[in-house]
Amino acid sequence: MGHAGTLDPLASGVLLVCVGRGVTRQVPRLQALEKEYEGTILLGIQTDTDDLEGKVIQEKIMPPLTREDVQRVLGEFTGEIEQVPPVYSALVVKGRKSYHLARRGKNVQPQSRKAFVKSIEIISFDPPRIGLRVVCGKGTYIRALARDLGERLGTCGVLEKLVRTRIGPYELKQSWTLDALAGAAREGRFEDALMALP
Q: Longest C-alpha distance within the chain, in Å?
């Protein structure tokens, strides 16, 4: 058994769990599939984790913003972009996961790397909160996007909420909750939860 991709503690949504040797061999291919997220960015604060799980390290007044202002800036975050991953992430730095080092008080400075964002859509606009739908490739950090977008808008920002709604062809509406999966297993219906790979 294995899984294709992780979710931040604050996030929820689609996580592919692979059962059986034939399927677990497909994990690298599944990890590379396009992903879709819906998230809420909270402007005006910055934390050490780039989401609400962390310690507030800065608060900044948000300038007057219109939906059109944000839409114009979002264009800078689509296509192939340079992104510095969050310090608190599973990225490997000097042989250790970045978040392990950060929790031990080490000075972690992840290097900028390329990410691909296919599209960003505003789904709600109620400053200081902006709801976005993001379609992106492997290795894109939505927390980093929230941080960088806040900075580009003349303030700062954190990720307040995140749901992964799709991985490749696998959508949230097809997913099983952990409770439902456990119930199916107890009732001998575990195979009902299994989907064949496309």
A: 57
pLDDT of 183:
84
* Of 8, 50, 51, 148, catalytic: 8
Strands (E) located in the chain: 2-4, 12-13, 16-18, 35-43, 45-47, 56-59, 79-83, 92-93, 96-97, 113-126, 129-136, 157-167, 170-171
pLDDT of residue 143: 95
Q: Which CATH number fits domain 2-193: 3.40.50.300, 1.20.120.740, 3.30.2350.10, 3.40.190.10?
A: 3.30.2350.10
Q: Tens digit of pLDDT for each residue in 55-91?
A: 999 999 999 999 999 999 999 999 999 999 887 666 6
Active-site residue flag, 8: yes
